[in-house]
Structure formats: C-alpha cells, structure tokens
Write a structure and sequence with these properties.
The protein is of the alpha+beta class. The protein is built from two helices and nine strands. The strands form three sheets. The chain has a four-stranded antiparallel beta sheet with strand order 1-2-5-4. A three-stranded antiparallel beta sheet has the order 3-6-9. It has a two-stranded antiparallel sheet with strand order 7-8. The longest helix has 14 residues.
C-alpha cells in the first residue's frame, strides 16, 4: 500500500486463487473460475464486491475511502488485485484500515499489510479475525 505524490492511495491484494474461488462462490452463490482467459466482467465485479466488503479504509469523520479496481495479475497459485483511491488522502487525518479478507473462510486466517509513505518507509501489520483494525497517522 503506497501513498502517491498526488495523495492517492494505491494498493494490491494477493489472494490464493483456490481460496478466493471457494469464498466468493459460497458467499455469493456463483460458479466463478479465476483463470486468466476465463474471467468475465461480471466475475470481476463479484471479486471487487467481496474485497470492498472485507477491506475498508476510513479516512476520518466516518468517511470510507472510495477506490477503484485497476487490474488483476495472475500467478500460478494466486491473483493480485490492484486498486487506486478515487479520493485523495488528507494528511490531517488518520487512516483506519479494517481487513477481514478470508476470515470468513478460515478461523485462524492472518493477513499482512505493508504500508509505505511518500518517503518509502515501510511498516508491516498483521491482521487476524480478532485484530482486524489498525489506525495509522498519515505523515507528509
């Protein structure tokens, strides 16, 4: 997760393909096959809906950051979903990130978030079903 020079937030999410298929097909009663040449626009919309429900960014005053799907990259066992914020990230605020991706599939699921600021200083955070929310002060 990076904050760009124009104060946009860009991030990617890596999910294992078989787990992602299982959770979205169960949760949304679909039959999505996440394969490079078989993914339809409707399938991408379902994947995006799942991410939006389980990965939320509060930029202050109970306002959720709006972000758009940019692309998907396929690897042998996983997919990377890329997003970019529509809203600019204000430096006077904090970011509160709620991350419950895959926690509805696995009880012991943990997620790693790596946040880097404009100086490229990185900090890692581990999310679990119990510890699913962290707040970050945005520094210019």
């Amino acid at each position: 997760m990076d904050i760009t020079a124009d104060n946009a937030l860009v991030f990617s999410i890596k999910l294992f393909t078989d787990d992602l298929e299982q959770i979205v097909n169960t949760k949304y009663h679909t039959h999505i096959s996440i394969q490079k040449d078989q993914l339809k626009k409707e399938d991408c919309e379902v994947l995006e809906r799942y991410v939006r429900h389980h990965f939320r960014i509060d930029i202050g005053n109970k306002k959720w950051l709006k972000y758009e799907w940019e692309k998907i990259k396929f690897t042998e066992q996983a997919v990377y979903l890329y997003f970019r914020s529509e809203d600019k990230v204000p430096f006077s605020n904090q970011l509160k990130i709620n991350n419950t991706l895959m926690c509805d599939l696995y009880e012991n699921q943990s997620n790693l978030l790596i946040l880097s600021d404009k100086t490229k200083k990185e900090q890692g955070y581990k999310y679990t079903k119990e510890d699913y929310s962290f707040t970050f002060k945005i520094n210019e």
